[in-house]
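Interim report to the steering committee. The following record documents the input for FAD-dependent oxidoreductase (365 residues).
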Amino acid sequence: MTQQGRTVAVVGGGYGGAAVAKALDEHADVVLIEPKDAFVNAAGSLRALTRPDEWAERIFFPYDGLLKRGSHLREYAANVDARGVTLASGERVEADYIVLATGSGYPYPAKTRTDSTAEAVAHFKESHAELAGAERVLIAGAGPVGLELAGEIRDVWADKRITVVDPAPELLPGYAGELRAELHRQLEALGIEVRLGAAFDAEPDVEPGRAGDVRVGIAGEKVEADIWYRAYGVSVNSGYLGDGLAPLNRRGQLPVTPKLNVDGHTHVYAVGDVTDVAEDKRAGYAMQHAEVVAANIIAQVNGEEPAQEYRPLAIPVVLLPLGPEHGVGQIPSDEGPAMLDAAAVADWKGRDLMYGKFAEIFGVA
Ligand SMILES: Cc1cc2nc3c(=O)[nH]c(=O)nc-3n(C[C@H](O)[C@H](O)[C@H](O)COP(=O)(O)OP(=O)(O)OC[C@H]3O[C@@H](n4cnc5c(N)ncnc54)[C@H](O)[C@@H]3O)c2cc1C
């Protein structure tokens, strides 16, 4: 039987939700509401595309390894109010605390387009076959996802022609100039062409990720390719909430307080990409939000005042691998932004893409 007053419904089991659920498992009765059968480590999805035999299965971590006491309901939340969650099936989960962690969607292959691991693995294998035969690859979007995709493709295929196009005038705005210069240097050395300040005149007729005759105008010039990928277009997963709990901002994000309560609700919290915290949206930040929320809920469960607050970093962090051995990174230091060289980026992220971290969290041998 659940103890009275200690039920926590965590809605969404991505980076933020899984971390909150795990941190609260010993202290409360956690119900994780998440339609997928496994946590998806999106950081590995681009390598799952380019090296599916080694990587496609490695980015999925079944939820049955996450919680010792709590339960996982494979359901979508259809509505949330201050007292509980109504599921898409019509069932209701009453809760004393609610944590909204439904994150964001992103075009495949960066995020999966199914809730089943078996289907997602099959998609990566099919998409790999489409990519393998394409000589000229066009990537729309030169943010971290587009550039990482270019790096992963180059690591497997030395001779494909890879072009990344973006209307923005510079790469990674908001990060140190030194980081941008090193990024340009490595992209050039890897033979990845980047066209900035240039957009597609119209979207190609061919579906992204499918081999075909891709013809597109880029800044008035006709360009042909054998496959293209869309590496832009984050969509916040908050449509199911409407404005019922608090008015969403124009991006669809939930307004939160420094304690990460949804505005106006002392027992409803939000973490990760679904929040309006003013910072780039990152798994690392979602997991830090999770620590703050878990500490605040533990305090409330124990009859104490929640006191933890989340403050975005003044100097943003980025780790951007270009395949397993290359890439750039920036971390904060007392002297300002500190650069990480390619070897450090490979050690911290590029080689294992956080597999080891999640294998430990999910109890995978
Ligand atoms: C290719 C790629 C690489 C990335 N690499 C990094 C990286 O290396 N480092 C980094 O810090 N960030 C990285 N990011 C960003 C990172 O993935 C996101 O910031 C992160 O996923 C946000 O975590 P989250 O917990 O907020 O939500 P998500 O991870 O998006 O998880 C949300 C979960 O909610 C579930 N859900 C959605 N709707 C509902 C609903 N109605 N009911 C119940 N559940 C629902 C979804 O199924 C999903 O499991 C990367 C992103 C991409 C696309």
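The first helix runs from residue 15 to 24. The committee is asked to note this result when reviewing the revised timeline.
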